[in-house]
Structure formats: C-alpha cells, structure tokens
Amino acid sequence: MIAARTGGPGRGARRHPLRPRAVWWLVAGVLLAMVAAVPTLMALAPSVLVAETALSPADALVVLGGDPQSRTDRAIALYRDGLAETVIVSGQGDCGEMAERLLAAGVPADVVVTECGSRNTAENAALSAEILRDSQARSVIVVTSWFHTRRALGCFIGAVPDMRVMVDSAQPPPGFMQSLASPDRAMVLAEFAKSLWYRVAHRGLCRPEEVP
Fold first, then answer.
1. 100-159 pLDDT, tens per residue?
2. Triad 82, 83, 85: Cα angle to 5°
3. Using an 8 Å Cβ cutoff, are 147 and 52 in contact?
4. What is the pLDDT of residues 70-94, one digit of tens each?
5. Helix/strand/coil (H, E, C) string of the chain?
6. How far apart are CA 167 and CA 157, in angstroms?
7. What is the pTM of this model?
8. With left for phi above 0 and alpha for psi between -120 and 50, is residue 100 left, alpha or beta?
C-alpha cells in the first residue's frame, strides 16, 4: 500500500524558479502594454479629466501651483478683465514665484494673497477655503491646467459648498497628435491615477461626483 502524502513538498523537492527569460518577457509585456495605453489615455483625457464652467465675476481668483507660469498668466488676464478683485496664490514651493509674477504684471500688492502651506490639491482647497471665508467671499474662480480642472473643481466644491465655484484652465486641451508630444504628457497620465486615488483618499473633502 502506498501512503498518501499529506504534507507539502519534502525537503528534497525541486523548486522551479521563474527563468530569467520568462521574467524578461513579463517585463517587456508590461512595458509594451503601458506604451500601447498612452495614446488611448491621451485621447480620453479631455473627456475624462476636464471640467468646464461658465465664468462670471467672482469675489476671488485662486491660482493653484504646479505650473506657475501659464496658470499665473491666465489669472493676470482674468484679473485685467475684471473677473475678480482678489487673487489668492496657493501652493507650497510655487506661491512666491506666482506672487512675483502677479506683482511684475502690475497687479496691486494689496490684491495678492499668498497661501504657501498646501502640498496637494486637497490642501489647496482646504487652506484657500479658510482665506475665502475670512474675506466673506461668496464666489471663486479656480485657475489651473486643463487636465487638472475636474479634480480641482471637485475639491473646491467640497471645501466651500456654500460658495459658487467656477474653474478656468490656463490653456485649452491640445489636439490628439499634439498631446502625444506635449511636455505635459507625463502629468496628464499621472492625473488619471491621482483622480482615482482622490475618489478614495479624499472622498470626504473632494466631491468629483458633483462636478458638472
């Protein structure tokens, strides 16, 4: 009679580690899938990541860090068009440069408010909300990059639900072919992951489901 084996493999059992060639093909397959996904994600970006709202005069502009040149330039244009009388620059690391650009463009110093403590979009919204409430603001225009508009708008809607929140992009989304060579391509692709993460990690503050 042959006794049934009830335990795991014996000490003498051979293990079959993944061969180096198999590992190479696995890595190559993952990289190929990632490369193949880039055009699809870039094509989807305008419909998935972008939020648009009609603009009207507001109590304040909030310019988010991350792209201090184009975002600040857009805020300058909006201020000159009379869309707001206060400009808040928000973002650790970029707030100083953005404030300097505003002042150099002729925006009065008493109009510019700096918020230099925020490290991400959720904190941009939370810390800017304190300034907005202190000034008794009832409406705000958030200025950011096109691919960041939906997440930013959702966070500000959550932070100041009693205010009218609008969003404006520093530049329009590029065409599909231009997007593939865009210097912002890595940031656009990262935005997909950040948007998913925010739906879980910051659900109590950011409200992407309320974004029109």
1. 999 999 999 999 999 999 999 999 999 999 999 999 999 999 999 999 999 999 999 999
2. 75
3. no
4. 999 999 999 999 999 999 999 999 9
5. CCCCCCCCCCCCCCCCCCCHHHHHHHHHHHHHHHHHHHHHHHHHHHHHHCCCCCCCCCCEEEEECCCHHHHHHHHHHHHHCCCCCCEEEECCCCHHHHHHHHHHCCCCHHHEEEECCCCCHHHHHHHHHHHHHHCCCCEEEEEECHHHHHHHHHHHHHHCCCCEEEEEECCCCCCHHHHHCCCCHHHHHHHHHHHHHHHHHCCCCCCHHHCC
6. 10
7. 0.80
8. alpha
CA dist 183 → 98, 129, 172, 186 (Å): 20, 31, 14, 7
Query: What span, in angstroms and rounded, lies between the C-alpha atoms of 62 and 210?
Result: 20
Nearest 5°: the CA angle 201, 122, 137 is 140
**What CA–CA distance (Å, rounded) separates 57 from 149?**
19
Identify whether the C-beta of residue 114 lies closer than 8 Å to the C-beta of residue 182: no
- The answer to whether 38 touches 189, Cβ cutoff 8 Å, is yes
Of 105, 104, 123, 103, the closest CA to residue 113 belongs to 103
Distance CA 143, CA 5 (A): 68
**What tokens appear for 79 in the block?**
């201020």
